[in-house]
Amino acid sequence: MAEQQFDPNRPVCRSGIVAKELVNGMIYIRHPRFSSRIVNRETWGFIQMCDGRDLDQLIIGVAELLGFSLTKEQLSSSIREFAENGVFIGTGERSPRSYRICNAMPLITKLSPSLKWLATRWFAILTAIAYLTCIALLVFDWTRFIEAVVSAVRQHPIQTLFLYYLTFIPIAFLHELGHASVANFYGGEVPEIVIGSSGNLAVITNMTVLKDRRAKIWYLSMGTVVDVFIWLALLVTFHYNNSYIVVVFLLPQTIYFLIYVYSIFKNSDFLKAVCAALNEPVPARPWKFIKDSWMPGSSAKSKLVWIMTVSLTVKLVITAFLIITFMFKEPMVLVLYLIYRVMVLAIGRWPSWWRRLFRTNLDLPNVDLKPGRT
């Protein structure tokens, strides 16, 4: 049975939304028709209020709920945002969505108690030693590693392409568990393990418990800490056994550490951790921030600009080195990596492309609305 058409002037929230109260006034909500999420209590109250009332009635209700009034433009902007997330009847999620697998709490509550032994200076030193050991092993085995990658691509090009994508998924999931365990250690709930439309596994986490700078930095770093020890295990294994299956697990993890772990783009953990350490806001547009910030400013801002510039420079140098290396060794490696990037983009964006193809986008007001507040 077809859903009723969405009316932005009289939005109706979906029935059957499961809601669970979390700490710090947050609410976990889920429904089969949209990605689960964690919102604040006021936002959940507003969603429930959308039962077919018109904008004037909603403005009165929101004023009673929040204690202050919103304009029609602000309210319409908020309605549009929720509509794009598929919360209302007759709408669909525009961004790549995720799908619930199971409740993450039984797993996370078993992992998080061990973190009290990891939140020490000695473990930080151990992690640094592990990272330096990874670099040493990679340098020592670099020629063997490149030859193994070239051999894998020549002998199994298509298989290597797909395994490069698939082998990174479980490692990325362990990375996310590292983040989630820290949040749970501080009392935050992790109500759900999800799989995204691109096939990636992730967890939904209540991060409002991360109040102080140390907690935020620890949370942002723990995913990479997990990655360091996984990388070390793979490099040690490769040192003694350079079989094909070891290579296809090691390759994406190595590329991640060589190019992406210190990235300043796509709202990276590295950039957020650096900003948390310096008490600076995370730049929404890193390129523009670097370009516009080469002028006298606060000491913390100057440090951030320098760190971002050095990070970008190192990334460009290593990327150029890898391109030149494989251009001479086996250009097919670069071709397959380009195909991989396109494949990842296509897998992540196919729902929105499908809606555009069949014209199932929402019929929302075509006006430039100001950001709303709920």
How would you portray this structure in words?
The chain is mostly helical and 374 residues long. Helix content is 61%, strand content 8%. The protein is built from 14 helices and 6 strands. The protein has helices spanning 41-49, 55-66, 72-84, 105-111, 115-118, 121-140, 142-155, 157-185, 213-240, 244-260, 269-278, 286-292, 299-329, 332-357; strands at residues 18-21, 26-31, 34-40, 98-102, 192-196, 201-204. Strands 1-2-3 form a 3-stranded antiparallel sheet. The chain has a 3-stranded antiparallel sheet with strand order 4-5-6. Strand 2 (26-31) and strand 3 (34-40) form a beta hairpin. The chain is globular.
Essential attributes:
globular; disordered C terminus; 61% helix; three-stranded antiparallel beta sheet; mainly alpha; 374 residues
Task: Write a brief caption for the model.
This protein has 374 residues and is mainly α. The protein contains 14 helices and six strands. Among the domains are: 18-93, no CATH class; 102-261 and 331-353, no CATH class.
Task: Output the structural class.
Answer: mainly alpha
Report Rg: 24 Å
Strand order of the largest sheet: 1-2-3
* Inertia-based shape: globular
Q: Per DSSP, what share of the residues sits in E-state strands of 2 or more residues?
A: 5-15%
Distance, first to last CA = 32 Å
Tell me the number of helical segments per DSSP (H or I, 4 or more residues long): 14
